[in-house]
Amino acid sequence: MDIEVIESKKGLLRFLLSGADPAFANSIRRTILQGVPVMAVNEIEVVSNDSVISDEILAHRLGQLPLTTPEGYLLPSECDCIEGRCANCSVSLTLMKEGPAVVSAKDLDSSDPEVRPAQEEAPIVRLGEGQELELTAIARLGYGKEHPNWQPAIASYKYMPIIEIDQEARDDWEDCIEACPKGILKEDDGELIVTDLKECTMCEACSDACPDAIKVEGDPSKFIFRIESTGSFSSTEVVKKALEVLKEKFDSFSEQVEKF
Ligand code: SF4
Fold first, then answer.
1. Are 28 and 36 in contact (CB under 8 A)?
2. pLDDT per residue over 102-160, tens digit each?
3. Structural domain spans, the chain
4. Atom of ligand 1 at shortest distance to CA of 185?
5. What are the pLDDT digits (tens) for 71-102?
6. Where is the 4Fe-4S ferredoxin-type domain (predicted)?
7. Which of 29, 85, 105, 207 is least surrounded, with the fewest CB atoms within 10 Å of its CB?
8. At what angle are helices 22-34 and 235-258 packed, to 10 degrees?
9. The dihedral of CA 138, 139, 142, 148: what is its sign?
């Protein structure tokens, strides 16, 4: 098994995983989406809300704000406290604002500076003249399998394309080249070549335009992953955490099997 980083920048990681199979690739994808715990607001206490949006919609908006997530917090189910409101398993973010103003994520004052909105400019609501908003939002750890608000990233993959070209089939490649929406086909010394195979979406527009010369397939042992972090962790951290979760599960399974 091999990994080659294609692109790594703030919030985005693309890599090629080789020598794997679809079940393994999908287990990584699903663990990223559903099995890495992150902080998100899942309760609000409203003191006053004169804005045009209701408390319920406000709760949705606050729940969708990605929060930075340090190590050390407990899931509410792991904590000894009764209400899930202690400093080990929750963080309070208070908000007090008077209009006219646009309330944004940076107006939330967190009880833990390490748990704060990852995108501080994200707007929450606009307040008109004389309107007030005062509330406390409570953030807790949770899993994407419970609610997408706890999803740390968007994770997807595609097979590495295989494009077979019969160079003898044609003298003129113009139709095939024009059919490609990604612009990655070109003629070089009378032959059709693919300039960047990883950018191919396997749309098959080229093989539809030139069925006599081009065949497009996916390689089920190579996967191009795309991980876009919401901002709770970096994309690289999301992948590492997902692999830790998978490892713990397999270690636990292995221990159980040893007892057979
Ligand atoms: S499959 Fe689609 S993206 Fe890939 S080379 Fe053909 S036309 Fe271009």
1. no
2. 999 999 999 999 999 999 999 999 999 999 999 999 999 999 999 999 999 999 999 99
3. 2-34+154-225, 38-150
4. 5
5. 999 999 999 998 889 999 999 999 999 989 99
6. 190-219
7. 85
8. 110
9. positive
Q: Looking at the domain that runs over 38-150, which CATH code has it been given?
A: 2.170.120.12
Ligand 1 contacts CB of residue 201 (under 6 A): yes
Containing H/E element for 24? helix 22-34
pLDDT recorded at residue 84: 85
Q: Which tokens go with 45?
A: 């206490």
Q: Looking at the DSSP assignment, which residues form a beta bridge with residue 45? A: 136
Mean pLDDT within 192-196: 97
- The whole-number pLDDT of residue 82 equals 82
Across the strands, what pairs with 67? 117
Distance (Å) from CA 201 to ligand 1 centroid: 6
Q: Which fold does the domain 2-34+154-225 belong to in CATH? A: Gyrase A; domain 2 (3.30.1360)
CA distances from 219 to 138, 162, 214 (A): 46, 6, 16
Ligand 1 atom with minimal separation from the 163 CA: 5
- Whole-complex ipTM: 0.99
Output Rg (C-alpha) for the chain, integer angstroms. Answer: 25
